[in-house]
């Protein structure tokens, strides 16, 4: 049994990670501003507090942990990241968390730490063609992310690598590509495309329509939460630090994703494309490096993950209607 710390344990990915680590028999401490929204925490010890406070981080890292997972960040989907009104908060809050957690870990001689970066750090100039984006790990420089969120992720990657070089810390850096699934944000303004589309379809009447931002030809790949957790743990317990993509290479246009959800719903719904924040034109996970280094790549189809997500969100929508 290992002692493990999960920062951001009240969030979508963090709460799922805690469940998985507990199923392996480990002792887990979770920390976040809030408890998980949709289920009780599985953590043995859960501390509520603000990781932007360096003194709080020292209280959290009060012992030797075998593994520290740093997932805490100020984040959301296109409706949060690309509207331009949250940029300062995104950069300040997430950078402060990473600065504080690395220093707290160093002071308590905790060496083994995982950082969840993002595909948003890849340069915009390699993602202009929706059919041929380049997101290989070595394409990150010259840097030119399309959002301040991406710039902060890039800075923090460098920060973790600097701590590894200067202080002998064993860091693992994952570049997540659009993680989705059950028990994630779906109606609070921070939801990402799969959850937003599932919500819109679940709320729409048969014969109605849903709105999709942009022309719908922009492409993405989406990774189901269970596979994200599996890949993250494999990276953490390997002898390789990354940075590496953890994502699916099953690329799909957003209008086609909407059509997939509509088909799963069994409803007759049309799509109306409207102006809205969309980010880069194309993005897809390049999985050659993770397959080479870890002998792993995602195996579940997008449709299988969307089926589970739509069923869960549809239930949430129905329950919310009953509460009104």
What can you tell me about this protein's structure?
This protein has helices at 12-23, 54-60, 78-81, 87-107, 148-167, 193-203, 225-236, 254-265, 288-294, 302-323; strands at 3-7, 27-32, 45-48, 67-70, 112-118, 170-176, 179-180, 209-213, 219-220, 223-224, 244-246, 252-253, 270-274. The strands form four sheets. Strands 3-2-1-4-5-6-11 form a seven-stranded parallel β-sheet, sandwiched between helices. By secondary structure, it is of the alpha/beta class. Helix 6 (193-203) crosses helix 10 (302-323). The protein has two domains: 3-179 and 222-246, 3-Layer(aba) Sandwich (Rossmann fold); 184-220 and 251-282 and 301-323, Alpha-Beta Complex (UDP-galactose 4-epimerase, domain 1), CATH 3.90.25. Helices cover 40% and strands 17% of the residues.
Count of structural domains: 2
Numbering strands along the chain, what is their spatial order in the largest sheet? 3-2-1-4-5-6-11
Proportion of residues in β-strands: 15-25%
Measured distance between first and last alpha carbons: 45 Å
Just give the CATH class of the largest domain: Alpha Beta
Structural class: alpha/beta
Quick one: CATH superfamily of the largest domain?
NAD(P)-binding Rossmann-like Domain
Helicity level: 25-40%
Number of strands: 13
The second-level CATH architecture of the largest domain is 3-Layer(aba) Sandwich
CATH topology of the largest domain: Rossmann fold
Report the biggest beta sheet as strand number plus sense, adding barrel if it closes: 7 strands, parallel
């Amino acid at each position: 049994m290992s002692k493990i710390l999960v920062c951001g344990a009240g969030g979508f990915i963090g709460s799922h990670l805690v469940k998985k680590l507990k199923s392996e028999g480990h002792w887990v401490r979770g920390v976040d501003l809030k408890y998980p929204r949709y289920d009780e925490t599985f953590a043995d010890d859960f501390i509520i507090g603000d990781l932007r406070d360096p003194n709080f981080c020292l209280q959290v890292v009060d012992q030797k942990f075998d593994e520290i997972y740093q997932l805490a960040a100020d984040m959301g989907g296109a409706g949060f990241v690309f509207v331009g009104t949250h940029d300062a908060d995104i950069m300040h809050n997430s950078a402060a968390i990473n600065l504080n957690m690395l220093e707290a870990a160093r002071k308590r001689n905790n060496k083994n730490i995982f950082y969840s970066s993002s595909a948003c750090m890849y340069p915009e100039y390699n993602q202009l063609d929706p059919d041929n984006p380049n997101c290989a790990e070595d394409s990150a420089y010259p840097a030119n992310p399309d959002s301040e969120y991406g710039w902060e992720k890039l800075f923090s990657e460098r920060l973790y690598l600097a701590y590894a070089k200067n202080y002998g810390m064993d860091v693992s850096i994952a570049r997540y590509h659009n993680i989705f699934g059950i028990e994630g944000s779906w109606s609070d303004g921070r939801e990402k495309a799969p959850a937003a589309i599932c919500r819109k379809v679940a709320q729409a009447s048969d014969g109605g329509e849903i709105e999709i931002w942009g022309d719908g030809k922009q492409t993405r790949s989406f990774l189901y939460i269970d596979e994200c957790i599996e890949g993250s743990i494999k990276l953490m317990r390997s002898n390789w630090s990354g940075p590496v993509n953890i994502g699916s290479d099953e690329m799909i246009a957003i209008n086609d994703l909407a059509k997939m959800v509509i088909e799963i719903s069994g409803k007759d719904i049309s799509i109306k494309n409207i102006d809205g924040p969309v980010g880069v034109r194309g993005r897809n996970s390049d999985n050659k490096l993770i397959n080479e280094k870890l002998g792993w790549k995602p195996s579940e189809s997008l449709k299988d993950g969307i089926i589970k997500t739509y069923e869960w969100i549809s239930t949430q929508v129905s329950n919310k209607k009953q509460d009104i």
